[in-house]
Each structure stands twice: as C-alpha cells, then as structure tokens.
Amino acid sequence: MEWLIVLGVVVLLIIIVVGYLWATYNGLVRLNVRVDEAWSDITVQLKRRADLIPNLIEAVKGYAAHEKQVFENVTKARSETVNASTPAEASAAENHFQGALKSLFAVAEAYPQLQANQNFLQLQAELVDTEDKIQASRRFYNGGVRELNTKIKVFPNTLFVRGLGFTEREFFEVAEPSAIAEAPRVQF
C-alpha cells in the first residue's frame, strides 16, 4: 500500500514538472512570436517612411536643385534603413536617417514656395504620422523583448530554456537618443 502512495506522489510530481515545462515552453513561444510580430511592425513602418522619402526629395529637388549632397545623404540613409535586418543595424540607420532628414528640412526651410506647396505639406504630415507609428512600434517591440528576456532569465527557467533554443533578444536602442527623441520638425 505504501508503494502506491509513493508511486502516486512520483506520478503527481512528474505531471507537475511536465505541466510546468509545457506551460513555460508555450509561453516562450508566444512571447517569441510577439517579438517577431513587433519587429515586423517596425520594419513595415520604416519601409513606409522610406517610401515617402523619394517623394519628399522630388518635391524639394524642384526648388533646390543645387543641394545635391543633401539628396545623396538622404538616399544613402534611406537605403541603410531599408536594408537593416537587426535592431542594432536599424539603430545605426536611424541615427544616419535622422541627421539626413534634418539636412533635407533645413534646405526646405530656405524655399518659401516649397513650404506652401500642397504636395510637400501632405508629405510632411504623412512623415510625422509615420514617425509616430515608428515610435509606437519601437515601444511595443521593446516591451515584448523585455517580457521574453525576463522569462528566459528567471529561475528556474534559466536552467533549461536555452536548451530549448530560446535566446535573449536585442532591444531596439539608438546610440544617440536625442536624435530620435522626437519626430523631425517639419512645420515651417
């Protein structure tokens, strides 16, 4: 009779451990998918912004044809942003892109006719909206990364989750936070 009690306790412990592992694994999978989804949202918004830039450049080019270097810098920064595949690459691209956009808008400020152009004003509004969406996507991504990294690091998860193939993810951080603290100023 005692061996039945011992067997029952062992079976119960095995069920508890398996249940815990199952729940932990599924939770980590959900968090991993959420982080992937959030990264996808960031890339979608960065692509949207990158698609707006050629239109913005064309609107400014007509008024400031002699500002060739500014346009080349914006185009190069746009390319870096589109080609970024990791949060670290995206962070570096963000720094370059913000600097290039500031230069572009500095050129635009010198042309009052451009500032009154309806197409240019609409592009500015879309760019501000996109910058807001990028910022929101970045917060959502970093929140997901925080949750995933925390679940990976807590005890007893830290003992076995790496063996299941889960690793900590990289936050979307920018080397110069002041460069992206706010959307580029596009009001003239």
In words, what does this structure look like?
The protein has one domain: de novo design (two linked rop proteins) (Up-down Bundle). Helix 1 packs antiparallel against helix 2 (68-83) and helix 1 packs antiparallel against helix 5. The longest helix is centred in the first third of the chain and has 60 residues, at 2-61. The mean pLDDT is 80. It starts with a helix and ends in an 8-residue tail after the last helix. By secondary structure, it is mainly alpha-helical. 76% of the residues lie in helices and 0% in strands.
Order of helices and strands: HHHHHH
Report the count of strand segments: 0
The total count of helices amounts to: 6
Output the CATH homologous superfamily.
LemA-like domain
Distance between the termini: 87 Å
Mean pLDDT value: 80
Shape: rod-shaped
Query: Which CATH class?
Result: Mainly Alpha
CATH architecture designation: Up-down Bundle
What is the third-level CATH name, the topology? de novo design (two linked rop proteins)
Q: What is the share of helical residues?
A: over 70%
List keywords for this structure.
188 residues; mainly alpha; de novo design (two linked rop proteins)
